[in-house]
């Protein structure tokens, strides 16, 4: 799991050119960038939680399993970018341009899309929620999530719960699309015992449980 280890690499650039850079797995939550050119850069598995990337150019960038939570992306350009399993939650996308971007399984939650340019909202490749989805969870699943949250690294990631301490149903919905409930419950219990490092995106949990499956312990 080393390659998914969180890197605290908040960026602070103003009118900088940072083309074809590798920001994979980076924790960009403290970033504040304005009018920067990131053309061709790799942001796969990166967290943009609370980050500001206003009026930036993401031409042909990749955002596989990237997470934009409470981010400010006003007037940024995602032209010909590739977004897969990407989440936008509570994001400012006013004036953002997605011309010729390739979207696959992209989720928008509590995000105003009325002023977004060149985004086809009726495509099956995107899902839009006004708020966190309501999902059915067994008591056993709830208990496994609450048990996992007793691990300080999992709690710190803020992926399985929200600021009010309630279970993050968006994350659970995504996990249940990757695993059946029995596997998820077992995986979370093992994760609770094994995780001893910081991480910043849900992809870490997904990859960990997939590893447990390959090891035959689930």
UniProtKB/TrEMBL annotation:
Gene3D superfamilies: E3 ubiquitin-protein ligase SopA (2.160.20.80). It comes from the Bacteria. Pfam families: Pentapeptide, Pentapeptide_4. PANTHER family: BTB_POZ DOMAIN-CONTAINING PROTEIN KCTD9. This is Pentapeptide repeat-containing protein. It comes from Clostridium taeniosporum. The lineage of its organism: Bacteria, Bacillati, Bacillota, Clostridia, Eubacteriales.
